[in-house]
Design a protein that fits this description.
single chain, about 425 residues
Length: about 425
């Protein structure tokens, strides 16, 4: 029965049904066939989303929306151009570094991709970069949004596994920098091979002006993440502080925001949050059914029993996560799958925080690989390109992501060094 439910879930998703509804329908059918009173379904759904810590999700989304609607993105791009624009293939490096800065403000790879694709792809194309290359850089670098804190998938992982979100945020810093560096190396290789231009000469005075202009925007994520890491605020409070700071900067200091814009941004936040919450609610019901059927223990036992080799077990776990990431939304994958794998990870002596970073990196790769490929599809939609066109370059950036994943997997200190 349990395996039949999983097959049904993937079938519904393949047919195009929203993931949250697919989770609920699959769970309801399973409960009905098993003779479980369906009155338990809404109770389980409510308990799944009735957690204060989950308020951090809409607040982080709203903070990202506010900062994306102001002059903040322009200031960040100006700073990134002053920092790395002088390197061959300058705009590609600016794209990556901007995504690293923007990742500190949104926590969502899809949101970053939507904003960056409208800014960078046309600009890079005008300067002689292949449009498909510009789209590939934009799509893959947007994945930094779920690795560098704050990260919405890390919040969900922390809630699901009762792991410190503060520790998860700290653990994501070094892997995020490593991933950004891998993207820049890949971009440089193409720049040398295809003769991509430098953006601008390096000038200390220009860098100083850019730093001055970006000082206040950069202080917002520093305050948010710094307050959380320092133990001064909870994740939900940190997100609220970020929202207030972004509102003060955008509406009062810069006057970039009108009441109507703030209302529209709140509406967009509600829509994005509703999608995540429906997935959480559906996952709570299905997760409870799978737990009753002891599916997590069976999968963990199957993967663990396949080999006694620590290295091969890690590769199997990564392979399983990569496969699921290709078909499931990151939120659903974390809530449904992580409880299945965490027992095996603990048995192997893997720190739950380290495992959380591994999970997020795997799901980040899944955001770039069809058929789901949520981030890649966002960029393709914004640029009127086909997936197969972007994948010509994108596959090499995905290879860089995989190399980073392997480094983080087998070098735990890369994520736990500062804990």
């Amino acid at each position: 029965m349990a395996w039949g439910v999983i097959v049904l879930l993937f079938l519904l998703i393949a047919l195009g049904m929203p993931i949250g509804f697919a989770l609920m329908i699959a769970a309801a059918i399973a409960m009905g066939v098993s003779g479980i009173d369906l009155i338990m379904a809404p109770i389980q759904m409510y308990s799944g989303v009735n957690k204060v810590i989950l308020l951090a999700i809409p607040l982080f989304i709203f903070m990202g929306e506010l900062m994306g609607a102001t002059s903040i993105s322009e200031r960040i791009i100006t700073l990134a151009r002053a920092l790395v624009g002088w390197i061959r293939g300058g705009l590609a490096h600016v794209n990556v570094v901007t995504s690293m800065f923007m990742a500190e403000m949104s926590g969502s790879a899809v949101a970053d991709a939507a904003v960056m694709s409208k800014i960078f792809v046309p600009t890079m194309e005008k300067q002689g970069y292949p449009k498909t290359f510009a789209a590939a850089v934009t799509a893959t670098s947007a994945t930094l949004g779920i690795i560098i804190p704050p990260s919405i998938p890390m919040v969900l992982y922390g809630v699901t596994t009762n792991t410190s979100i503060k520790d998860l945020f700290i653990a994501g810093i070094v892997p995020g920098i490593m991933l950004g560096g891998a993207f820049m190396v890949t971009s440089y290789i193409f720049a040398r091979r295809e003769g991509h231009p430098r953006d601008e000469r390096f000038e200390t005075a220009r860098l100083g002006r850019a730093l001055k202009g970006a000082a206040i925007p950069l202080m917002i994520p520093v305050i948010v993440v710094g307050g959380l890491i320092g133990g001064l605020v909870t994740p939900t409070e940190a997100a609220a502080v970020g929202v207030i700071a972004a509102l003060v900067f955008g509406a009062l200091l810069q006057r970039d925001l009108t009441r109507r814009q703030v209302y529209d941004l709140m509406s967009a936040t509600v829509r994005q949050t509703s999608v995540v919450m429906m997935i959480i609610a559906g996952s709570a019901v299905l997760g409870q059914f799978l737990a009753n059927e002891q599916i997590p223990q069976k999968i963990a036992g199957g993967l663990g029993g396949a080999t006694d080799s620590y290295v091969l077990r890690l590769l199997l776990i990564n392979g399983f996560l990569l496969l699921l990431g290709m078909f499931l939304h990151a939120s659903a994958a974390i809530i449904v799958v992580v409880p299945m794998l965490l027992p095996l990870a603990r048995e192997m002596g893997i720190d739950p925080v380290h495992f959380g970073v591994i999970v997020c990196l795997n799901l980040g790769i899944g955001q770039q690989t069809p058929p789901v490929a949520s981030v890649l599809l966002t960029v393709c939609s914004a640029t009127n390109l086909k997936i197969e066109q972007v994948m010509g370059y994108g596959k090499w950036f995905i290879l860089a992501m995989f190399a980073t994943l392997m480094a983080v997997t087998f070098i735990p200190a890369a994520s736990t060094w500062f804990l």
